[in-house]
Design brief:
dioxygenase; 15 strands; binds 2-oxoglutaric acid; Jelly Rolls
Length: 351
């Protein structure tokens, strides 16, 4: 029986199931060929680039560092990002409080419809997937704030204020990073800003309960992000892993830093110069984990294609143009898969 599901008033999230079990329910167990193999994971704390954003707009050096990280890893960490420590603490605290509320209170936000702009759900897409993921999540659209704030949970009482206070400076960081990335590609500073139309910003509060058999399941299996860039805050419990040269590597938390990764849309805009890299979340038996990714997105109508400045005889255009809305729908409908959704839009796909 599916443990985390919505049936009228009998909605049950993973968090409420996981606290009382000592074996992973069968619908969370991955086939033997698709398990995390936790003993084979390396650590790249020392080598995932850590970029000091102190002077990101003025300094060529920072945008070059970011460019190199996008080429070599698709991932980097940022410090001196300008997001106040109190804002980070309050965001983490209110997320923890949200998931500590009684089930009846949390379920007021429940929906299994991915098109909803505010929703609590579980796993990834409960409507389409065969194996569930060890995660509950609250996903909120958050830009423009005034369009969505009224939909957000009103409990805990400080929820809306704390989350709004977090989303504003994270957006500032996203805008600075998009400029630095444009510059690093030799494009006009505002190239990506303009290419993605009216910007969208979503934040997810991921809650991964303790898991009695973490070797059998994933918090989230390997996937690439469909959006432009993702800026992730994690608590002090490790769980994020990144695929690097064919090997899964753990990215352990550094307090007050954020982890940034390039999404599929930058891979397309850069005509494959920058890579949208597979990453996954694993779970553990000793401690629940919270991660808070901000997904910065194009508008659904934005027409995405490789920048013409990056196409020449040696670098033929690798993608057909598509709207982000079209791309995003494919991403949600097919579920998290190791083969990236990008392949469906490659020019070679049509030959
Ligand atoms: O929890 C994490 O560290 C990764 C989260 C993630 O990849 C996602 O929400 O798409």
């Amino acid at each position: 029986m599916v443990m985390a599901m919505a049936m009228g008033s009998e909605k049950v999230l993973l968090l409420d199931v996981a606290s009382n079990i000592n074996r992973v329910p069968s619908n969370y167990i991955r086939p033997i060929t698709d398990r995390p193999n936790l003993d084979k994971v390396g650590s790249i704390d020392a080598s995932i680039p850590l970029v000091d954003l102190h002077d990101v707009t003025g300094s060529n050096d920072v945008s070059q560092q970011i460019g190199r990280a996008c080429e070599d890893y698709g991932f980097f960490q940022v410090k001196n990002h300008g997001i106040p420590v109190e804002v980070i603490h309050k965001m983490m605290q209110v997320s923890r409080e949200f998931f500590s509320m009684p089930q009846s209170e949390r379920l007021k936000s429940y929906s299994d419809d991915p098109s909803k702009t505010t929703r609590l759900s579980t796993s990834f897409n409960v409507k389409t997937e065969k194996v569930s993921n060890w995660r509950d999540f609250l996903r909120l659209h958050c830009y423009p704030l005034e369009d969505y704030l009224h939909e957000w949970p009103s409990s805990p009482t400080s929820f809306r204020d704390d989350v709004a206070e977090f989303c504003k400076p994270v957006r500032e960081v996203a805008l600075r990073l998009l400029e630095a990335i444009s510059k690093s590609l030799g494009l006009e500073r505002d190239y990506i800003n303009r290419a993605i139309g009216q910007h969208g910003q979503h934040v997810a509060l991921n809650y991964y309960p303790r898991c009695p058999q973490p070797e059998l399941t994933y918090g989230l299996p390997g996937h690439a992000d469909p959006n432009v860039i993702t800026i992730l805050l994690q608590d002090d419990v490790p769980g994020l892993q990144v695929l690097n040269n064919g090997k899964w590597l753990a990215v352990n938390p550094i307090p007050h830093t954020f982890i940034v990764n390039i999404g599929d849309q930058i891979q397309v805009l850069s005509n494959d110069r920058y890579k949208s890299v597979l990453h996954r979340a694993v779970v553990n038996s000793y401690m629940e984990r919270i991660s808070i990714p901000t997904f910065y997105c194009p508008s659904p109508e934005a027409l995405i294609a490789p920048a013409s400045e990056l196409i020449d005889e040696d670098h033929p255009c690798l993608y057909t143009s598509f709207t982000y809305g079209e791309y995003y729908q494919k991403f949600w409908n097919r579920g998290l898969a190791k083969e990236t959704c990008l392949d469906l839009f490659r020019t070679s796909h049509y030959i």
